[in-house]
Amino acid sequence: MSERQELLSGLALTTFRLNGRFLDVADALATPVGLTAAHWQVLGAVLEAPLPVSGIARAMGITRQSVQRIADLLAAKGMVEYRPNPAHRRAKLVAPTAAGLEAVHRIDPAHAAFADRLCDTIGDVRAAAALEALRLLADTLDALEGEAQGT
């Protein structure tokens, strides 16, 4: 295997490991308020503005079907609602309800405490640099995938 192949494999394996760890952390933070990491992820995607399921899926890097299933579960729990979408008749917008917003706000203290522990451990500058590197990697993979698909 070439050095570049080893780098790609290392990036992928480390990212998979990080994803698992972040999901564990998110579950630990969300469970006390009756959510899962996936619920929190979908709710988090629509806090700023309602989005269609496909928009949430793109933003989160997960399948539209997964988001639809989670959004339906959240709607059944009264945490989100489906609203008409002026841009597309059939693709409803997912929006948080007051109960959904309240659940996310109840996570905030534990979320802030964990963020402080993480940044105290690795430092704000390193955390910001890691975020920048991860965003660059994600954007580059998106661009390379777009090139491969001819878009």
Automatic annotation (TrEMBL):
Pfam families: MarR_2. SMART domains: HTH_MARR. InterPro entries: HTH_MarR-typ (IPR000835), MarR/SlyA-like (IPR039422), WH-like_DNA-bd_sf (IPR036388), WH_DNA-bd_sf (IPR036390). GO terms for biological process: response to stress. Residues 4-143 form the HTH marR-type domain. This is MarR family transcriptional regulator. GO terms for molecular function: DNA-binding transcription factor activity.
